[in-house]
User: Fold this.
Amino acid sequence: MDDLAAIEKCKAGETDAFSHLVKKYQSQAIGHAVAILGSREDALDAVQQAFLDAYQALEKFDSSRRFYPWLYTILRNHCFNILASRKKHAAVSLDEAEILAQPKNDSCSSQVRLLERALRELSPEDRELLTLKHLDGLRYDELAERLGIPSGTVMSRLYYARKRLAEKVLRIQQRVEYEETHNE
Amino acid sequence: MNKNYCQKIRISAMAILDSEEPQLSAEKINEHLQSCAECRHELERQKQIVNLLGKQKRREFQLPNSNYRIPITEISAGRLTAENRKSKIENSSLPFVALGLILFTYKIIEVLPGITAGLIIKSMPLVVIILFFSLLKQNPFKLNQNIRLQGDIR
Assistant:
């Protein structure tokens, strides 16, 4: 069953069809929420809320659009609300969840760890943009749709996010080297 | 070199690397890069980061586990739509309305003149309530485990 058929069935009252969408997209949605929130538990909450909100707003869904980008906009709203409430309640301990897949090859693992640390030190907005671009391979127009900003803004924001990431990577590398030389 | 122009050049060069439409033409970018070492250096750093990111994959999350569930059954049961929720509330409140009416009628009868309330009549409300919950197969003293879930659904 494709997404549109499932949505039409839901609108027609066959609510079981929604579970098809949940099963299809929940893992992807959690990955995206983790990239913004950096916490698995918070990501699970955000995804659950996003699916429930999407279900309740299904009548308003524009059938000319794809389902997941629409769900994503709901999901990122929840994620940024969670981040805002975290700022208010600063002393929340986070369970850190990894964004990147661990490589099978050991020689690449230090590189992945380095990048994971650098991504974690970025702002959620930068992290979201970079992971959508480079891990999901979205084009500028798709990024613009997901983030609700013009393509030109995507272009410049990507440049600055990469610049900040490059700086973080360099700084972490220097820190690691410094620690290694002082531990010897 | 004009800093703003340098930024424009870099942003456009990266757009070309991403196979997207740049703000400035490739000729202008090449022309500028030949004379600007700072831009060449910055673009080299950006390319390295792009290469590093390009080798990565997003971590996949295995679901569902025992602690987590999107309430598919709640959704599937159609409890979330406003109409269904309303009719469900109406249906579930009917027996309680009936119980209220029975007890109200009993009170009216009880206060009627000429009726002496014996033990059987006095214990009637209790009997009715026990019968009512037995028929509904519900324990009135049991805590509702679904309160949190209902709260989540909003």
